[in-house]
Amino acid sequence: MKQRFQMDAQYCRTLFLLVIIFSFTRSVTQAYDYTDLEAYPLLSVECPKECVCPSSFPHAIYCDNKGLKQVPLIPARTWYLYLQNNLIESLNEESFANATELKWINLNRNKLTNKNISKNLLKNLKSLLYLYLDDNDLEEVPAPLPESIEQIRLSRNKISKVPEGVFIKLGNLTLLDLHHNQLTDSSFQADVFNGLNSLMQLNLAKNSLKKMPPGLPLNTVQLYLDNNNIEEIPKNYFSGIPRITFIQLNYNKLSDTGVPDNVFNVSSILDLQLSYNELTSVPIVNGHLERLHLDHNKIKNINETISCPEAVKEEFDPHFPQAPRLRYLRLDGNDIQPPIPLDLMICFRLLQTVVI
């Protein structure tokens, strides 16, 4: 009897625990289901029939590669919108009326023109950070743009015009990509980049520029100007850009007369690319420069044209050699014959790679 009583008591305790666990599990499940509605806001009834709204990416809508000619109604609380690789010709406010939280729009490889973008559509997307409009039919930089924007990609369009004041309120913009368009020197006014206080990367490669762009923003770090027709650089052009680090001027028409003596003698420049130009001598560089591309120019003799930069002292390691910091040098495609000149190796003692 005593044994049976103990078994009954144990059974009751087990049953009681199961009831508690079931109740707790049910309450947690209910709480999770309620939370789930918040975490996964794009329900099947909201998702446009032309698109995919995966539950694993609750704020994203994938409408790419669907042959769309117009943008469907975008539901509220959408953050990421993928519309690339379609046939979209226009953007209207109706499609984006509820999409007030959009942060990212990819419209690459469509058929958009400026006249078919509703005037204030982009400006009214006040949370927008990234706008991708590569490979469309735009003829000018779209405007007005939202003040929140951080990156704009407009490569491979037909842009030949930059509207006056288009960037004036874009203080958050860090990247502007306009490469492979139809920009000329007349496309830019003197104050065209005013307002771009945070811009770090500017890409104007593969255009039709003959002059350097005017008034670069002070915080520019990377500058891409490859494949233009630039013949000269103004004196002290880079001295007013204290953070400039990376410069690409490959495939231009720069000659010795178009490169002032100390234009590249700037301590912030670490990577300088001047391949495929018309230089006959090595330009003066700063001792902080680490990578220099001079291949495919008209340089014949290094010893007679090189100017050894001042040695750079390593602040954090007093035992590190005091010497110019150049580690990589390309000279191939010139008229220079091996061996590597002794003066070059004596000057740049930290060189690790020389292509000649």
TrEMBL record:
InterPro entries: Leu-rich_rpt (IPR001611), Leu-rich_rpt_typical-subtyp (IPR003591), LRR_dom_sf (IPR032675), LRRNT (IPR000372), SLRP (IPR050333). One of its GO terms (cellular component) is extracellular space. Pfam families: LRR_8 (PF13855), LRRNT (PF01462). Residues 1-31 form the signal peptide. It is found in: Secreted, Extracellular space, Extracellular matrix. PROSITE patterns: LRR. Residues 46-80 form the LRRNT domain. Its main location: secreted. Belongs to the small leucine-rich proteoglycan (SLRP) family. SLRP class II subfamily. PANTHER family: AGAP008170-PA (PTHR45712), KERATOCAN (PTHR45712:SF13). This is Keratocan.
